[in-house]
Amino acid sequence: MADPRLETWAKALVGYSVDVKPGQTVAVVGGVAAEPLLRAVYREVIRRGGFPVPIPSLGGLAPELLRHGSDDQLAYISPIERFFYEQADVFVNIQAETNTKSLAEVDPARLIVRQRARTQLTESYLRRSSTGELQWTLTLYPTDAYAQDADMATEDFAEFVFAACKLNQPDPVAAWTSLAAEQQMLIDWLSDKSELHLVGPDTDLTLSVAGRTWINADGTKNFPDGEVFTGPVETSANGHVRFTYPVSFGGREVSDVRLRFADGKVVEASAGKGEDFLLETLDADEGARYLGEFAFGTNYDVTRFTRNLLFDEKIGGTVHMALGSGYPETGSTNKSAIHWDLICDLRRGGRVDVDGQPFLVDGKYLIGNLAP
After folding, report:
1. pLDDT per position as a tens digit, 167-214
2. What is the value of pTM for the model shown?
3. Contact 342, 247 (CB under 8 A)
4. Region class of 29: left (phi > 0), else alpha (psi between -120 and 50), else beta
5. Please, what are the domains in the chain?
6. Phi, psi of 342 (to 5 degrees)
7. CB 240, CB 253: distance < 8 Å
8. Distance between CA atoms of 90 and 204, rounded to whole angstroms?
9. Is the distance from CB of 334 to CB of 327 less than 8 angstroms?
């Protein structure tokens, strides 16, 4: 994809999403399908005086390991994997799958073996991120596979990605800075509040965020971004929720997920598709049945559902929750081998009240100036 916006993209990733300084070690990781962007990022790291370490990856290797490897091989963590999670100063991750269903036939139990082996690695990654020891950013390069998932032509999907990343705007960094200011208004209002109450189709859920910290996700981690999130009090969720969109986890699509919580824990779960996989994942460990994240989506440039969480969880006017591990910087103490985001669309007949006051109604925030 020869497009001059690739250079703009690389400059935004390396100079805004992360701020590469001279002498920093920068892992540039991504599928080979993203070669044009990988090269652009590599060049930009050099311009900024960093030490780029390119780590391109081939598609289809994970299914080979998961199907044919022993448990010891599944649990093995390579020096390269340790490098970009535990040693690099900066981690630029460019998703570029050419087959998003490559893990669909893999035994879920084997996925969980692999995930459990990486629990400590994940905790180290989250700790380094929360302290600023590690800067990271994640973006997605438009491939045929992603376009097919979104029911779009690849060229149209590429334009959607550029718009969602604000790369079509005269100054993308200024656009992200403006969104950050709008999101900060939401955070300032939420910061001393305690209880969230979600009401929507087949949804009536309360949870506490008392004493927790809200994070402004403004393109400096995920790119695109557009959310404010926190870690709910672990034992506070009560009620039921129906998640609107299908989600993929470990290469498996699960749809029409319904959960009931009691004192923070999932006590009933069902799905229209992939229910066995959902239940097995919930039993991965003790923390998998508790929420590690709650977030409000704020990016109204994400205009449609794509079957890709990098975009879908940011849709303006939606909320999402993650089962499993939480982010330490929010105050979350939940630990798990999984972090599974699920989206609840409240734009038609839904709302969130905060300490009894309306905050989000039919997809519109009543605080600040964010609007569709």
Report:
1. 999 999 999 999 999 999 999 999 999 999 999 999 999 999 999 999
2. 0.89
3. yes
4. beta
5. 5-141 (3.40.1830.10), 172-365 (no CATH)
6. -130, 135
7. no
8. 41
9. no
